[in-house]
Amino acid sequence: MSLEIKAVTKRFGGLVAVNDVTFKVDDREIVGLIGPNGAGKTTLFNIVAGVFPPDEGRISFRGQDITGMGTAAVCRLGLSRTFQIPQPFTSMTVLQATMVGCLHRTADISEARELALGVIARVGLSEREELSTGALTTAGKKRLEIARALATGPSMILLDEVMAGLNRSEVQDILDLIRALRDEGTTVLLVEHNLEAVMNVSERIVVLDHGEVIAEGAPKAVVQDKEVIRAYLGDEVDDAVG
């Protein structure tokens, strides 16, 4: 078992952003976390990654309780994440930005450089090592986000909207990369609004709505669930849809 989320709740004042959420992610599994805007997906990611603690519930990673741990401690255990809006160090090159993550694994600059070059090649950014991060295309910045997360050497990665803003060809390239990472042993939990993409790559789907899990299962079953259809299309959806 890679990740186990048990009855997690998070409140912001009177708003319950995440409400009694429970699900698991197995080792070397790709799980998609979907839901309409405001469903609580990114809030849940932030809780798992250690940005802030839950008000209730527990989170375990590879058998260890990580509830309330900070982001640095969670990352040291092998759980890394990307951000919905790429946040590159614009004063750095692609190589330098990736090396920052590699320095989490080693204090040796030469070793960090070699590790970074390997990660850069892995995500398809070879020959752009010396390019300023700010000069990358949207697709390039998305790949750099993945590279920065992979640079820390995680066993599990949380991908937050890594396909947003990409064209069909670029999306397919990212899907191929996600599958390859899984095949190499990395567990993946991804938040994604591109339903076609997430259904295509995920082995299992968890659906959030108003902070609660309303469906979980195989992609084909979830997409036909009436509660899921209503969450995306509204209460007036025809019962025959799906």
Shape: globular
The residue fraction in helices comes out at: 25-40%
Mean residue pLDDT: 92
Unreliable residue stretches? 236-242
Q: What gap, in angstroms, lies between the N and C termini?
A: 32 Å
What Rg is obtained from the alpha carbons, in whole angstroms? Answer: 18 Å
Strands side by side in the biggest sheet: 6-7-8-3-9-10
Main beta sheet = 6 strands, mixed
Task: Give the beta-strand count.
Answer: 10
| Oligomeric state as shown | single chain
Number of helices: 9
Comma- or semicolon-separated keywords:
single chain; 242 residues; alpha/beta; 6-stranded mixed sheet; 4-stranded antiparallel sheet; 10 strands; globular; disordered C terminus
What does this structure look like?
The chain is 36% helix and 24% strand. The chain contains nine helices and ten strands. A six-stranded mixed β-sheet has the order 6-7-8-3-9-10, sandwiched between helices. Strand 1 (3-12) and strand 2 form a beta hairpin. Helix 4 (109-122) packs across helix 5 (138-150). The longest helix has 16 residues, at 168-183.
